[in-house]
Amino acid sequence: MLQSEDGKLSVKGSVTIHNVVALVERGIALFNRDDLIIDLAQVTEVDSSAVSMLLEWQREARRRNCRIRFANAPQNLKGLAQLYGVSGLISLA
User: Fold this and answer.
1) Is the pLDDT of residue 6 over 90?
2) Which of 4, 20, 39, 44 has its CA 20 to 30 A from that of 31?
3) Residue 26 within any structural domain of the chain
4) Residue 12 resides in a domain
5) Residue 72: pLDDT band by 50, 70, 90 thresholds?
6) Is 88 part of any domain?
7) CATH code of the domain covering residue 55
8) DSSP labels, 18-68
9) Do 70 and 90 touch, CB atoms closer than 8 A?
10) Is residue 93 part of a domain?
């Protein structure tokens, strides 16, 4: 589930292969600012597709000249990014 408010996009619940395509598309549709914070504090479950989602959002933001920042990433998501060797490509705070 995604919620957008005042330049912040909040991701809630699970981000897995079962729902990631819809989340990616909905998230991109909400890229309506030059500077966007994506809050991951309420993400409860992830798999490797969550890392792919963040990379896709980052690519799309770059294409649109939009700056995005990922905030409050859960430890399991940070661990997956590190495991797949992309933690240097995604700034997870």
Assistant:
1) no
2) 44
3) yes
4) yes
5) very high
6) no
7) 3.30.750.24
8) TTHHHHHHHHHHT--SSEEEEEEEEEEEE-HHHHHHHHHHHHHHHHTT-EE
9) yes
10) no
Instruction: Provide the token pair at 15.
Output: 């981000």
* Positive or negative: CA dihedral 74, 77, 81, 84: positive
pLDDT in tens, 48-60: 999 999 999 999 9
Structural contact between residues 61 and 36, judged by C-beta atoms closer than 8 angstroms: yes
Q: Is 44 exposed, middle or buried (0-12, 13-18, 19+ CB in 10 A)?
A: exposed
> How many domains, in total, are found in the chain?
1
- What's the pTM? 0.92
Diameter over CA atoms, the chain: 33
pLDDT at 5: 86
17 pLDDT more than 80: yes
Residue that has been written with the tokens 């990922």 in this structure: 70
Structure tokens at 3: 């919620």
